[in-house]
Amino acid sequence: MPKTPHADAGSVIGSLWMVFAAFCFATMGILVKITAVKFAMHEYELVFWRVSFAAVVLGVQAMILGRSFATNYPLAHFWRSLAGTISLFMFFFGLVYLPLATAITFSHTSAIFLAIFSLLLLKQRPSALTWAALLVGLVGIGLILRPSVLGHGLLPTVIGLASGAIAGYAYLQVRELSLLGEPSWRIVFYFSALASLLSAVISSIKGWTAISAEMLPYLLGIGLSAMAGQLAMTHAYKVGRKFMVSALGYLVVVLSTLYGVLVFGEILPAMAMVGIVLVIVSGILASKK
Question: What pLDDT, on a 0 to 100 scale, did the predictor assign at position 8?
């Protein structure tokens, strides 16, 4: 059946929205790293500024539009939100202590772990393409791990990789909630609300950094870029083609690599770069299933 001009236009628009989302997420990553280095802010504070902005905006928007916060699946929302929050804490720890490209790549192993959890927990039988994607992805992770451990230590490496694994589990819960009929805004709102609460509590225990006028552009930039990226990505999947949009999502790894080189002079070993490429290939293959 021939493609219609409308379908082609939707594909192009979806692709452009995903490119914009990748730019936003890469910008958020570099802003988190700069803020941590420049102002000595710990990852829990940074997570608070990342999620509280979205919680307030989504909450106010829902009230204005008369949307209901009530859900028939509070426990499912809690476990999804808790997994997402823990993953975000680990991801931001990785952003602070690992090269930007490595931390971003570890977070994008979520697609690999999502396939693994679908196999182990849901007993879904993977296709040959999914098996190939898993194999390529695991080889890529292995190539990244060795130079990361040697260059930056075991703890940051393990925590960075764990952020991708737990994010994979969180995405599995998102998929299940979506199948139950829960709207995406409510899933994101409850996640943002719980993450805001937990990060505020932990930051109060560890101690807050006094906010100065110099910090505000960075903190607002983290919240704005994260929310804009989330909205752009959601819209990209709505109007674009799933495979093309998923593939372009890995542009964030490329942009983060460039940011790391330009801002922090981060040059990764050749083995790590090959591993990053393999993880990207794995994610693209997995999105074709």
Answer: 55
Task: Output the CA angle 25-26-29, nearest 5 degrees.
Answer: 90
- Please say whether the beta carbons of 106 and 245 come within 8 A: no
Within 10 angstroms of residue 69's Cβ, the number of other Cβ atoms is 11
Amino acid (1-letter code) at residue 244 = M
Query: Can you give the residue range of the structural domain that contains 248?
Result: 5-287
- The alpha carbon dihedral of 235, 239, 245, 246 has a sign of positive
Q: Which residue has the tokens 């021939």?
A: 2
Q: CA 257, 259, 263 angle in degrees (round to 5)?
A: 130
Integer angstrom CA distances of residue 246 from 19, 102, 252: 11, 19, 11
Q: How many CA atoms lie less than 13 Å away from 83 in the CB half-sphere?
A: 18
Q: Which residues of the chain have pLDDT under 50?
A: 1, 7
The DSSP H or E segment spanning 183 is none
Query: What pLDDT sits at residue 1?
Result: 45
Q: Quick one: DSSP state of residue 123?
A: -
In the chain, the number of structural domains is 1
Kindly provide the b/e burial profile for residues 6-37, where b requires at least 16 CB atoms within 10 angstroms of the residue's own CB. Answer: eeeeebeebbebbbbbbbbbbbbbbbbbbbbe
| 185 CA to centre of own chain | 16
Which amino acid is present at 164? G
Length of the chain: 289
10 Å Cβ neighbour count for 288? 13
**Model pLDDT for residues 233-284, shown as the tens digit of each residue:** 877 877 777 667 777 788 888 899 889 988 888 888 888 899 989 888 887 7
Whole-angstrom distance between the N-terminal and C-terminal Cα of the chain?
A: 21
Half-sphere exposure of 162 (CA within 13 A, CB side): 15
pTM of the model: 0.86
